[in-house]
Design goal:
Two copies of one chain form a homodimer. Chain A is α+β, with helices and mostly antiparallel strands. Chain A is built from 15 helices and 19 strands. The first copy, chain A, folds into four domains: about 100 residues, Uridine Diphospho-n-acetylenolpyruvylglucosamine Reductase, domain 2, CATH 3.30.43.10; about 130 residues, Uridine Diphospho-n-acetylenolpyruvylglucosamine Reductase, domain 3 (2-Layer Sandwich), CATH 3.30.465; about 230 residues, FAD-linked oxidases, C-terminal domain (Vanillyl-alcohol Oxidase, Chain A, domain 3), CATH 3.40.462; about 50 residues, Vanillyl-alcohol Oxidase, Chain A, domain 4 (Orthogonal Bundle), CATH 1.10.45. Helices cover about 30% and strands about 15% of the residues of chain A. Chain A is globular. Bound molecules: flavin-adenine dinucleotide (2 copies). Chains A, B: InterPro entries: Cytok_DH_C_sf, FAD-bd_oxidored_4_C, FAD-bd_PCMH, FAD-bd_PCMH-like_sf, FAD-bd_PCMH_sub1, FAD-bd_PCMH_sub2, FAD-linked_Oxase-like_C, Oxid_FAD_bind_N.
């Protein structure tokens, strides 16, 4: 084994020299940094290297124009989770060269594809002063859309909107549909790599990916699954550089290949940079109908969830439906001020009023039917009958909801894979709206839903924040997505959000619930809750990390996994949080 | 890092001492072995330790009574792939202790759950003289069947038959169905760990697993996914040993947990021993109908496959259907001698005769419809119309095939998850019937199917063997399962089978096709075909292997992955094979 890497400590503020970034990479001197930047410019071109030198350069931007330097929805200071420089490689060898250079100089790297990972940290790195690789800026080609095999192959910069436009322009939606998350601005690779979700039957994005090309922390290039088998009939030729070799014909058809199936370790991880990925498209089902069902009472969540479970398991509910709390919908119709001038969390009565005013429920369910009409009719009659047992349940099709910003009409697009921006509106519930996602997993059951909702509601009240949440319902579990909206220009609002998420993580762990994905600030705290058998899983992850990335170059600290050369006591942000006054 | 482990070389025959096994573990002396056995007896009880001392003890047995020492369907000598001892731990700590002991003494271990992995090596280890852990013998409890969540949790020794009986006894099939492979004698864990397939909509067994408890090569115990989060509400209590702690309520509902998703690296690998696993059960679909469609001409495979692709993708074909060549079916009806006294591969005319005699096609398709009658009717009318375009296609329901050994009547059980033994009959196509599986993956397409079939047929003819094969059709790819049947008491028959598989691996690699799983003897050859970018994937696997198992204790050589202390030039069995005379 090569010489041990230097121990890395958080960079302490010190005198800055001209040309220095706001925060140097840990353990890197000014001179080393400048050397690095020069060499990075040689690799990627000066245009593709941007050093963060002043606070002024930290402009939050918006979802549509996201920044590439820090967390737009900053929970701490804007400059807390900040990179030293953003670098956009031009191609695969550029990424490899940067990784090799970073290994040589022992500089940490954080990757994003687009940087719209809002609520989870946006473009920001976990370790301040890391280099951010803006991998999607130049590497943004749709490499293939294969109608027969119903898949697409993309580079990191391809967004859901890009893919949708491609399908539209080539008149392919009659053959295949895309699955999209609530918003269409994220990247297909970034989202799947974080195991994000969408709302058609293909909503589990990791499950629906197939075949990756990955750059390891040391710069090596691997193709996973069938991609590891060179395919002459696809045009594989000696002499062509590996990343330009056409892939095996089954690369994006069959995930597992031969031997250990590795793709999972490249998700939510710091073990590789995905530079190409296959994603399955859904065959056009030959018919579609979105629907909404409203439930009048806050407590209905219990009964509703118990109705959902068997229907979802049976695939009578074919897609990933959502059950949304009243404010999740209301916040899309208008901001808090449009309903009320209270600074306090809205009361039950106020929530009932809003529901009434908008003609929605305290809970609102959005699903869709897929297939030819006779099949849809069978499904719909079963669904309608089941939910009719909930007193006051009302049923709608999109034409029944002509009002502006109708959620049903937006979901009717989302659930057939047409991306939109509409859901962005709830972020502005408060002025200078920013948000954090708290996303625990639970069994699809009335008791779990009710209890998880109650815990969240109680703590939100205590924090003085409204609760906006929905349940995203997979086959056997649900992602409960709690959208903690705060005012990013108001320190007390930030403090509330921060207190709330840390408190909820702890509360939920007590109930046996864990989160599926999280924000930079609380990665350590959540990783610590997954501590079965003396942190056996974390230790396993650390062992693999240290083997594949002995210098801890790629995304140190991501999801609580610290490489050997990052002393934990100096880096871990534990669950402690200032009490609310 | 601790002291480097000793280099391991194949054991050369030497004078054997009393009490020595037929083959000592590589690098282990007689005295060390005896010390090991004594200590293993202390851990597991003398009853659970069996040393292979003589050739006489190598009794092939049958599928129903499989041996636990060597490959029942031996391609080389019976004693080639042989273990030194078979040890059956009594419980999880027993497995951990054995792994620690093997680390201490640097003795390699091979694991099986049941040992019915026929066609792929059975119970035998890759490295002769390894210890075989018969993990399913004592650890064979059904830990839970959860109807609401539609899953079961099992230990390694639970077979498909065991689970089926449990469902029957508790009258649970009205709620949930199991997915089963062709035969029901294998273990749920062993099959999923090899990424085996079944034939209901839940046929992808790795996809349908959820949550593992794994013992790492060093003896550490890990729970994956949500299992890593201790759950007090499920009864988790400090003081109880980890493996006895009840699991998180979402352990078997949600696969991914938080951070890297590791389960894939424990499949087809040498990185862990799975001691508990969740498997999803399919909700009873509320209606079922199996069907068979026969096609008269050998060339029909092309047209048929192009009809299947869109229907399967659209889930009009809801399950994993199979398209079987005439002899695959015929061999279940009777052995070769019952049709013909030829020692040569049957000719086209002879195959046509057999098809006619049995009233089956040259190709026979088996699928099923799931759901209430109106839904099944829609699906069936689409399927029937599509296949009616193939001249001479005939359609059958089970009641139309009352003959003994009707494949359709067996498949009608299999496709609803009822295990059987019927398919065993094709192994006896030749006297002393033994078999090897050759299993390449391909796109679901007429061209691929036709070409792959032609290549296989041509080489089978050259080898002087009949071709028995079927296509197992997943959503986007198919597993082409070629059953190479040979006479294990006839050296020339074995030579033919051996020549055939090695030649087919090489031929298929030329066409860009790779195998999904394989026999011990050809693991190295297949691993070598997955050699993209200078074997990047293999190197990645080796890095992880060396990190988690620095002494190369667990399953060295499995699927071509050799730990650092096994010099490859001494161990790899490459693609060379004696020419046929
Ligand atoms: C209103 C609203 C609704 C939302 N709804 C959803 C939803 O329905 N479902 C959902 O999943 N999310 C949702 N999100 C969260 C987020 O917007 C999406 O997940 C988005 O797709 C993230 O996209 P991105 O490509 O910009 O991420 P990026 O910032 O580019 O990537 C996110 C992270 O993934 C990793 N990563 C990115 N690229 C790579 C790569 N090439 N190789 C390795 N790792 C990589 C990095 O760790 C990175 O930090 C929502 C957000 C908002 C504001
Ligand atoms: C006629 C016939 C039809 C068949 N049809 C099918 C079919 O339809 N589908 C199919 O998939 N197979 C099929 N097979 C192959 C085989 O019988 C099955 O795959 C069977 O399920 C293997 O079962 P097992 O549990 O005995 O395997 P084992 O021998 O117990 O295990 C197989 C391998 O898995 C690994 N393993 C086992 N247990 C563990 C563990 N606890 N932890 C880690 N690794 C472990 C080991 O490497 C082991 O060598 C068929 C075989 C025959 C003869």
């Amino acid at each position: 084994m090569s010489q041990s890497p230097a121990q890395k400590r958080p960079h302490r503020a010190s005198q800055r020299e001209k040309g220095d970034p706001l925060v140097l990479p840990p353990g890197t001197t000014s001179a080393q940094f400048k050397d690095f930047i020069k060499r990075a410019q040689n690799i990627c071109g000066a245009d593709n290297v941007f050093v963060v030198e002043t606070e002024d350069q930290l402009v939050d931007g918006t979802y549509k124009e996201p920044n590439k330097t820090h967390d737009m929805h900053h929970l701490y200071d804007r400059s807390h989770f900040v990179c030293s420089a953003t670098i956009a490689p031009r191609d695969v060898p550029g990424v490899q060269d940067i990784m090799r250079l970073c290994n040589e100089l022992e500089i940490p790297v954080w990757t994003f594809s687009i940087g719209r990972n809002t609520g989870y940290g946006g473009a920001a790195p976990r370790v301040p002063g890391s280099i951010c690789l803006d991998i999607g800026k130049n590497m943004n080609r749709i490499l293939e859309v294969n109608v027969e095999g119903a898949y697409a192959v993309v580079e990191p910069g391809v967004t859901y909107f890009d893919m949708h436009e491609y399908l539209e322009q080539h008149d392919l939606r009659k053959h295949v549909w895309l699955d999209v998350p609530d918003l269409g601005g994220g990247s297909i690779i970034g989202n799947a790599s974080e195991r994000g979700v969408g709302y058609t039957p293909y909503g589990d994005h990791f499950m629906m990916h197939c075949g990756m090309e990955v750059i390891l922390p040391n710069g090596d290039l691997v193709r996973t699954g069938m991609g590891a088998l060179p395919d002459k009939t696809a045009g594989h030729k000696p002499g062509v550089p590996p990343h330009e070799q056409p892939g095996n014909r089954a690369w994006h058809l069959f995930n597992y290949g031969f031997g250990p199936y590795n793709d999972g370790i490249f998700t939510q991880s710091s073990l590789g940079i995905i530079v190409k990925m296959g994603i399955w498209l859904m065959p056009n089902p030959g018919g579609y109908q979105a629907y909404m069902i409203t439930f009048p009472k806050d407590d209905d969540v219990k009964q509703v969830m118990d109705i959902i479970r068997p229907l979802r398991l049976q695939m009578v509910m074919q897609n990933v439906p959502t059950l949304r709390s009243v404010l999740m919908d209301a916040a899309v119709y208008g901001d808090k001020a449009s309903y009320h001038d209270s600074k306090e969390p809205l009361t039950e009565a106020e929530l009932d009023d809003i529901a009434k005013k908008l003609n929605i429920g305290r809970w609102n369910f959005y699903g869709a039917l897929y297939g030819p009409e006779p099949i849809r009719n069978v499904m719909w009659s079963v669904i309608k009958e089941a939910f009719s047992t909930v007193p006051g349940a009302k049923f709608y099709f999109p034409e029944d909801r002509p009002e502006p910003h109708s959620i049903l009409r937006t979901r009717a697009l989302t659930m057939q894979g047409i991306p939109t921006y509409d859901e962005l509106r709830w972020i502005d519930w408060l002025p200078n709206g920013a948000h954090l996602f708290f996303s625990p997993i639970a069994k699809v059951s009335g008791d779990d839903a009710m209890l998880q909702y109650k815990v969240t509601k109680k703590r939100s009240r205590e924090a003085g924040l409204d609760i906006l949440c929905d349940f995203v319902i997979g086959m056997r579990e649900m992602h409960h997505i709690v959208c903690i909206v705060f005012d990013r220009e108001d320190p007390s609002s930030k403090k509330k959000a921060h207190w709330l998420i840390r408190t909820l993580i702890a509360d939920c762990a007590e109930h046996g619930w864990g989160e599926y994905r999280t924000h930079l600030a609380v990665m350590d705290q959540i990783a610590e809750t997954y501590n079965f058998n003396d942190n056996a899983q974390l230790k396993l992850n650390e062992q693999i990390k240290n083997a594949l990335d002995p210098k801890g170059i790629l995304a140190p600290g991501k999801n609580g996994i610290w490489p050997r050369n990052y002393p934990k006591e100096e880096w871990v942000m534990d669950g402690k949080v200032e009490p609310l006054e």
